[in-house]
Design brief:
- By secondary structure, the protein is an alpha/beta fold.
- The chain folds into two domains: 212 residues, Aldehyde Dehydrogenase, Chain A, domain 2 (3-Layer(aba) Sandwich), CATH 3.40.309; 259 residues, Aldehyde Dehydrogenase, Chain A, domain 1.
- It has 17 helices and 22 strands.
- The protein has a seven-stranded mixed sheet with strand order 16-17-18-15-14-19-20, sandwiched between helices. Strands 11-10-9-12-13-21 form a six-stranded mixed sheet, sandwiched between helices. A three-stranded mixed sheet has the order 3-7-6, covered by helices on one side.
- Strand 19, helix 16 and strand 20 form a beta-alpha-beta unit.
- Helix 11 packs across helix 12.
- It binds 1,4-dihydronicotinamide adenine dinucleotide and magnesium ion (MG).
- The site of 1,4-dihydronicotinamide adenine dinucleotide has 26 residues, from helix 9, helix 10 and helix 13.
Length: 506
């Protein structure tokens, strides 16, 4: 990667003469990088995408289409089909037929070959997929290129490995696939969530109807093309696009055996209510309000990197985002100062630029929600700091922000903001940290930062969260199960535990 780096001399002298660099540096101006955008010209986005049903691209019976835009430019990228209940019915039928005819009868080692093929194709097309992901959803190319796409491929590789070894996965008990899985995913990790859902379902012998989110359908459609090229039997994977109604039609379809949902707690609850009393299996991965807990003895500079990665990279569009920072009172002022300094160096802007740290907010609606909660924080008397960013003229943006002096009852301390907004609170003892961290309706993830390994283990046993990171944050691996407690949902994805969501064990 070639880029010119110029450090402005005024910044150097000003910074050197100040004990607190934040006073001297302007946002993103510590180092001026020349723009280094990833060129999208070799990427082909069709002007229009139909539905991928039964191995063919079909026009929706609904006759309706909708546009997907780039949230960083508001430019229309493509038009996709708006699937009706009838279209969903076609997809479920195709999946059922493929289940009965091919997939449930195929040997695990054969299924594995197809899944490996998908994994390899994802690697081959990684660059294109990363660009489309950043264009359609607004996340920085650094994230889509280095996190989303490699992890999506890793999930297919990992589960391809399981496909012929499932007899060893459930402690010698007999297992069988469930049938047709209806899978509904959100907009924050579009391709990665598709991989999390599709890979284990296929490995275990199920067929799939997947519905991507309405603001980010493109990489799931490119995945459909990969699946087509990998020559999976028709109907094993079907992709239907649309919004909430399409999702509801899929979840409520009587011939779907299993529903897997990732998204908001509200919609998760709706699905759970609708499925009550049916024999359908359900897994829900919902919201979070994770606490990142920093002790005085922690490596603070490292913790700052973890905090920034946990809430500002990816615009806080992460269900396990470290959106509450609990810091030991004696370290509060120093940590806040270090965090402020680091925030001054974050670059917000073009998601396709390789130097961008903070991209665009996924949609106008999400931006409205972030603004509303931030206003509520100000009204409730918390003190706000926002990095003084230059906001691009077009698109949806929100500057990296934190609040200090918030009480636990504030909305910004309780509700999922799903934006680059951190709420900082303090504690004096480990017990107080645990109590505050657990004082939430969610329980998806948490982070602990300390010099003492024993303290991490102690905290991990007391924290009610599905994933707990020690001296790091937002690290994923397909072999590591992920999922929540309380209103963050139930069921696990990844690892051996994740397989059991797609089989009946006798
Ligand atoms: P959402 O829950 O409405 O959307 C997630 C998926 O569910 C999308 O594919 C959507 O089309 C589908 N869906 C919507 N209504 C449905 C229904 N009645 N039945 C079946 N499927 C349905 O999330 P939304 O509105 O995009 O975001 C709202 C908030 O949800 C965010 O501000 C954030 O707090 C949270 N969220 C959490 C996510 C997570 O990963 N846990 C991901 C996305 C949003
Ligand atoms: Mg879009």
């Amino acid at each position: 990667m070639s880029q010119s780096i110029t450090k402005s001399s005024t910044d150097v002298t000003a910074a050197a003469s100040e004990r607190r660099p934040s006073a001297a540096l302007e946002f993103g101006q510590a180092w001026d990088y020349a723009p280094a955008p990833e060129a999208p010209d070799h990427v082909r986005i069709d002007p229009r995408y139909g539905l991928f049903i039964g191995g063919r691209w079909v026009t929706p019976r609904s006759g309706r289409w909708f546009q997907t835009i780039s949230p960083s430019t508001e430019q229309v990228l493509s038009e996709v089909a708006d699937a009706s209940a009838q279209d969903v019915d076609d997809a479920v039928r195709a999946a059922r037929e493929a289940y009965d005819k091919y997939w449930s009868k195929m040997k695990g080692s054969e299924r594995a070959k197809y899944i490996f093929r998908i994994a390899r194709a994802l690697q081959e097309k990684a660059r294109e997929l990363a660009i489309v992901e950043s264009m359609d959803g607004g996340k920085p190319i650094k994230e889509s290129r280095d996190v989303d796409i490699p992890l999506a491929a890793a999930h297919f590789f990992y589960h391809a490995g399981w496909a012929d070894k499932l007899d060893y996965a459930f402690h010698g008990r007999r297992w069988r696939p469930l049938g047709v899985a209806g899978q509904i995913i959100p907009w924050n990790f579009p391709l990665l969530m598709a991989a999390w859902k599709i890979a284990p379902a296929l490995a275990c012998g199920n067929t799939v109807v997947l519905k991507p989110a309405e603001t980010t359908p493109l990489t799931a459609l490119l995945l459909a093309k990969i699946i087509e090229e990998a020559e999976l039997p028709p109907g094993v994977v079907n992709i239907v696009t649309g919004a909430g109604e399409t999702g509801a039609a899929l979840a409520n379809h009587p011939d779907v055996d299993k529903v897997a949902f990732t998204g908001s707690t509200d919609v998760g609850k709706k699905i759970q209510r609708a499925l009550a009393g049916t024999t359908k299996r359900l897994t829900l991965e919902l919201g979070g309000k994770a606490a990142n807990i920093v002790f005085e003895d922690a490596p603070l500079d490292q913790a700052v990197e973890g905090i920034v990665a946990g809430i500002y990279f990816n615009q806080g569009h992460v269900c396990c985002a470290g959106s509450r920072l609990l810091v030991e009172e004696s370290a509060h002022d120093l940590l806040v100062r270090k965090l402020k300094d680091r925030m001054m160096t974050l670059r917000l802007g073009d998601p396709l630029d390789k130097n961008t740290d903070v991209g665009a907010i996924n949609s106008k609606m999400q931006l409205g929600k972030i603004r509303e909660l931030v206003e509520a924080g100000e009204k409730e008397g918390a003190e706000r700091f926002s990095a003084p960013t230059k906001i691009p003229e077009k698109g949806f943006w929100f500057p990296p922000t934190f609040f200090t002096g918030a009480s636990q009852s504030c909305r910004i301390a309780r509700e999922e903001i799903f934006g680059p907004v951190l709420t900082i609170m303090t504690f004096r003892t480990p017990d107080e940290a645990i109590e505050k961290a657990n004082n939430t309706m969610y329980g998806l993830s948490a982070g602990v930062w300390t010099d003492k390994g024993a303290k991490i283990f102690h905290m991990a046993t007391k924290l009610k969260a599905g994933v707990i990171w020690g001296n790091t944050y937002n690290k994923f691996d397909p072999s590591s199960p992920f999922g929540g407690f309380k209103e963050s949902g139930f069921g696990r994805e990844g690892g051996r535990q994740g397989l059991s969501a797609y089989v009946e064990v006798e």
